[in-house]
Structures are given as C-alpha cells and as structure tokens.
Amino acid sequence: LSHPPFLGRLVLAVYRASGDITWLSRALPLLEKFYFYWTVPPHLVSGINLSRYYDFAQGPAPEVALGEVDEHGHNHYERLRMNLAAGGEYVQDASTFLDPETGALTAHAYHADRSMRESGFDVSGRFGFANLDVLDILPVCLNTLLWRLELDIVKVREFLDATDTIEVWRERAKQRAEIMNALFWDEQAGMYFDYDGRAGRRRSYPFATTFWPMWAGLATREQAACIVARLPDFEAAGGLLTSLHLSGCQWDKPF
User: Fold this and answer.
1) By C-alpha distance, which of 208, 199, 43, 204 is closest to 135?
2) What is the rounded CA–CA span in Å between residue 130 and residue 109?
3) CA 14, CA 24: separation in Å to the nearest integer?
4) 3-class SS of residue 241
C-alpha cells in the first residue's frame, strides 16, 4: 500500500457523481477495512493513539535498485550511504542506518526508506535526515486524512441509512482532533507540525502539510487564520514551496 489515504474523498466523489447506492453499499466495508489498516499497530502508535507510516516489506525498494541514477551513476541508496558516511549537520546518529563495520546500509535504513515511500512524500528533511526517522514521527498529513476518513465514513453511512455505528465514528474523529491539536498545533508558530514520538516533541519543520487540517475542516477558524497568515512564506514563482528548508532534497525548498 502506498500514498496517503484519500479513499474516503474518492468514494464520496464517485457516489455524488453517479448516485449509485448499490455501488456505495459495496464500497463501505472496503472503506472501513482500509481505515483499520492504518489504525491498528504497527501503523497505530499505542499510547499516543495516532498513526504513522510503516511499510511491511524489507530490503531495497525495487524502483531504487532498478531505477534512476544521477549523473555520476549513483542511485539513491548509494548517495544515501555516502552522505551518511560523510556525516554533517543533519545526521544525528548514522550508526542506526549504516553498519560501522561494512559501511553498508542497515535493514532498518531500508525499512525506513520504504516507510517514507508509503507516505507518498519522497526525500526531504521533514522526517529527519533523508526522512530516515519516519518510523518515529506522527505526521500531520496522515492523521488529517484519517480524521477526514472517519467523517467520510459517517457520511457514507448516512447516505446508506446505516446509522448503527455513526456515533462511534464521530467519537473517533473527535478524539483524533483533540490529540492532533494537542500534539501538532504550535500556537506561537501558527502552524501544524509533525510530532516526534521518540523525542516527545513537535518537529519545528515548516512544511506545506500545515495547510491540510485547514483543507480538511479540522482547524478552527482561529487556527485557519493563523495558517493563512503563513501562506506568504510558502508562496513562490509557480506555486507553493513544499518546505522552507534548503536540504538539497527533492521535497524541500526550492521545489
């Protein structure tokens, strides 16, 4: 499975365009199954009750191993290995990702890289160096979409007159919003930040996903006003910057 869960939005859009109630009734159990994929361990982080990206496969991603190389003939994993070995300001502890004896990437490094790819966001510094700390991060994007999915399932059930568990789904959305606002919302910055579960603090890394809770309807009017006030920071020729950091990665400034 890959990329953030927009499926509830898609199902409702198809139904509103087609009016096919039989199709919608078939879609509901699949939608709920999809939801639970993201909301049980290991995607769910117990104790925090928010979700993270977590890929189930191991080893190198085939699109990297068999895919593109740079002008020096190096693929992403080869560049990653060289950058980790060289160290630098963004690398905190390379030993987790680089075997000190062989110099090869560790199994954990490959798992983290695959989990980054599940996010739909490729390399940046948002989840640590080259996004390799992704397994420790509770992301704004994923949890915003799961909140939206909880309410989309409410709407699907209303269309189907299947109201027996609607309050359960509403309560899930309410609890998620409360946790997200407690952990993600930074009043001083006027932005939503990802949360580092291992460090127990927000990651002060301005990223365009700060706009997602406003788009989804989770942000309050006051929060939305703060987020809009930060819009000029992200505006650039051609659209919005993904982040405000220059890391050299494809999902950071100036892209």
Assistant:
1) 43
2) 10
3) 9
4) coil
CB 234 within 8 A of CB 208: yes
Tell me the one-letter amino acid at 209: T
Verify cis geometry, omega within 30 degrees of 0, for the bond prior to 5.
no
Residue 251 near residue 122, CB atoms below 8 Å? yes
Q: How far apart are CA 19 and CA 14, in angstroms?
A: 8
Q: Which two tokens stand for residue 203?
A: 């990651």
pLDDT digits (tens, 9 = 90+) for 126-171: 999 999 999 999 999 999 999 999 999 999 999 999 999 999 999 9
Instruction: Name every residue whose Cβ is closer than 8 Å to that of residue 60 and which is 6 or more positions away in sequence.
Output: 77, 110, 113
**H or E segment to which residue 160 belongs:** helix 140-160
Tokens read off for 183: 């952990």
Please determine, for residue 1, whether its predicted confidence score (pLDDT) is greater than 60.
no
At residue 254, what is the residue type? P
- What DSSP string describes 40-104? STTTEETTTTEE-------S--HHHHTS---TTS--HHHHHHHHHHH--TT-S-GGGTB-TTT-P
Task: Give the whole-angstrom CA distance, residue 243 versus residue 241.
Answer: 5
Cβ neighbours of residue 46 closer than 8 Å, sequence gap 6 or more? none
